[in-house]
Structure formats: structure tokens, C-alpha cells
Amino acid sequence: MTTPTPIPELDDCALACATRLRDASEVLLVSHIDADGLTSAAITARALERAGIPFETAFENQLDAEAIATIAATGHDTVLFTDFGSGQLDIIAEYDDAFTPVIADHHQPANAETEYHLNPLLVGIDGASELSGAGASYTLARALETGDTDNRDLASLAVVGAVGDMQATDGELTGANRAIVEEGVEAGVLDEQPDLALYGRQTRPLPKLLEYSNAVYIPGITNDQRGSVELLSGLAIDLKRNGEWRTWVDLSGEERQTVVSALVECALKRGVGPDSIEDLVATTYTLVAEPIGTELRDASEFSTLLNATARYDRADVGLAVCLGNRESALDRARTLLETHRRNISDGLQLMKTEGVTTENHVQWFDAGTQIRETIVGIVAGMALGAENVDRDRPIVAFAEKSETETKVSARGSHALVDRGLDLSVVMQRAGSAVGGDGGGHDVAAGATIPTGQQAAFIDRADRIVGEQLDG
């Protein structure tokens, strides 16, 4: 390693992992399927390629005992796990005679040890808000550099992964993530600026930008097409070009300020508090090499595009986009994104129609087979900012995984975490109590439980959350 990694606390571990990978005859790279997992895979794949290390790539939605057994049967002497593996160390350890694991992850480790384990939690860095799986993978990529390689260009993918993993606390990336942002800016692949904190600045027509954003709920604007159009139409700026609505990035700085001023005035008149109005502005991360007006230029939109691939069984498409395929893979990803958006919209409408059930400390809904289990967590996270959903209670969502298993996804807020919420513990303890298993992060976690155990799970989860928030 010619230069230190951006996370000095992880230098020694990253170097040890990199050395083991260089000594391998061939590496099997296995990663998770969300945006953080896909960017983790892309970062390590590119770094392995540049280091001249032969590898194959595979993806798993859930790294359970069956998946690990299948991995062991491939015959690879070294397996690199990215964005998962820490929480499954106890199972992985059962195959120590089959392969050597190298892990770059940020989830809570199981009660087991392994030699090559790169995880921020092991050095006192918060894996839920300060370093994502992609960040851990980027740290490993920096350790894999040789004298003639520079992997700092991969910082942009690490930022996409962190943003996709909801690590932008209070509107910006902090902690160890901050060091990666700085490297990306220095390398000329990233730009960071304060801007309107609404999703879709690159691609959404202006009315949709206001209508669909859940950063701040503004009565008469959020989820209100007519209200959004009326607000914009009353402004003294040209909002259309050749008969088509312009997007946020089409506007000049002066035009953007006009929209922001009108939005703030509207919010104040409709009772939105000053603290919430402050949330309308956040730090935005731009991938400067990508074309203006595309999903790939904005870290948040890029992460959504990636979620739309692997969560519909096309992780190969997401990986190809991350690695630079701007033709067939990107076209396919955009088609999947349209499907993803429709399914998310349908899921939110389902939740709005059927409502949530409120317990003492949590709220929940059971989607059954009506929401795909790979996206029910996304729906739950978006629902937490919707009308008639309490922001001061974590939300739990169920979706059928199979005839015998149910997927559980839980989402909270950083404000709740500050009060003591740890959904990783909630999912692990409540899941285990009903014969399942779970884990994740303090602000977002999941579990798999036997079908029919939803009521017992909620009863246990409600009590645990109560203990955390009232303790």
C-alpha cells in the first residue's frame, strides 16, 4: 500500500485483507443486492481487476446458512464478502476448512472471530451513520493499490452506496464517510454543494419534484399534484421549455432561489415549523463525470437506479452500470427503474388505503403478497415521512417471502436513534423470540420470521422499543 487509506483506524486491517487477496489463486466476490451492496461489489471488482487478482462475482439477497453452504461448495480458496458477512460470522466459521473469508462490511458482527475482517464497528466507528459497506470496500480498494494504480476515482461509488444506505445524517455525510467525500472531491470525481433536499433534482419535472418529495411534508404540496402546479405557475419564471416542464438542474441560480423562497413561504403559511423548513436544504453529492440531467449524476438518484436492478433479480445489470456500461445495461436499468417506481407507488398507495396499526411504541402494516419482499423496506422508509404516519414511532412492515417465511423490515429516524432506538437489536431479539433471525443497523434493520408469527413479533418488538426509548 503506497498511501494510507482515508480511515487511519482501518489501515492495518485493510492492508492485511489486501495481502490475503493478493495471495489467493482466485477470489469469489459475494455481495448484497441493495445499492450499498452493488457499489461495494463494483468498487472491489475494479480494485481486484487493477491489482491483477482473478475473481468471480456472485450476489445474495440473504446470506443465510444455505447460501454459505453453496458458496463453500464452489471450491474457491478465498471468498470476499462485501456489505454482509459480519453478522453471519458464526455460520461462516463452520467452513474454515473450505475457504478463507475476507470481509468488508459495516453490520453488527456475530459472536465469532475471523482473521481478515474489515468493519468500522471493530474500531469504534458507527457502521450505521459513519461508514457504509461501500465505504469499507473503498478502504480495502485503497489498500489494494500498487505503485501505478490510484483507486480514488472509486470514491464516487462509495458515496452513492453511503447515500443509498441512508447515512446522510442531518442532510450530509459525516464521520469516516466525510473523509471519502474529500478524497472524491480531490480526485475530481465528486462535487458537494448545499441545495434543495428534494429527490429528483436531475430528472424529475418540477411539479413532480415538489409533489413526490417527502423530505418535508408541506400541506397542499406534498402528494398534491394540483397544489404543486399552482405554486410553480404563480412564479415569474419560465418553467417550461418547448412545451415540457423543466427540471431543477435546468434552472439558473436565481430561478432556483425564486422556487425555494416560494416553497418556504408556502410552508410557513401552512404551519410547517422552522426546524422542518431547515430540512429543505441539504448537502448534495454530484458525480461530475456523468451527464447533466441523468440519474447517474446525483448520488441519491443513482442509488435508486441501482436498487431497481438487483431487487428485481438483475444484480448483473446494476454492477455493469457501476462499472461504466452506458449502453445496454443502462437502458435495462432504466426500464427496471420504471417498474420499481410503479411498485413503490402502488405500495405507498396500499399503505395509505389500508393504513397502519399503531401500538404503544411502534406502528406496522402487513403487505402480504401485495408488495415484493425485496422492496417492502423501501416502502416502509418512504411511508415514515408520509401523511398520517407518525414520525415519532418506528415503522415495521411485513411481506411474504415464501409459504413458510415472512420478511420483516423496520425503519426509524435519526432523531429516534438519538433517543436510544436500535432496530438491529429489536430485529435480532424479536426475531429470535419467534423462531426467526434478524439484524442490521440502529436506524434500519430487518428479519425473517416463520409465517404466522407476525402478531407475536410485533408484541415483542413493541416492548423492546419501549424499553429503548423510555430507558
Automatic annotation (TrEMBL):
Residues 198-281 form the DHH-CID domain. Residues 373-466 form the DHHA1 domain. Residues 27-161 form the DDH domain. It holds the Pfam family DHH_CID. GO terms for molecular function: exonuclease activity; nucleic acid binding. Signal peptide: none annotated. It comes from the Archaea. This is DHH family phosphoesterase. The lineage of its organism: Archaea, Methanobacteriati, Methanobacteriota, Stenosarchaea group, Halobacteria.
